[in-house]
Design a protein that fits this description.
1 helix; single chain; 35% helix; mainly alpha
Length: 82
């Protein structure tokens, strides 16, 4: 491709894009309070002990996500069946 006579000769170097307002952001800081402990590393073969409330919360979230999936799959099956 021919270069424009108004521009200087291209030396073939690929330059970095210019920095605009969206690129110079600072990463967010940790939202965890200082008195809260971090996660504990488990050894292979160990499992984390869950309380009943945590277990029920996990099951509730799983059911909440499972129901719409089943509705979509059943509607797809109805449209594909002859």
């Amino acid at each position: 491709m021919a270069q424009s006579a108004d521009k200087p000769i291209d030396d073939g170097v690929i330059r970095l894009p210019s920095v605009d307002a969206g690129m110079n952001r600072v990463a967010p800081t940790a939202l965890r309070p200082k008195d809260q402990k971090g996660p504990v590393m488990l050894r292979p073969g160990q499992r984390r002990k869950r309380t009943e409330d945590e277990a029920e919360d996990v099951l509730h979230r799983a059911r909440k996500r499972f129901d719409p999936c089943m509705l979509r799959k059943s509607s797809e099956a109805r449209t594909l069946s002859w």
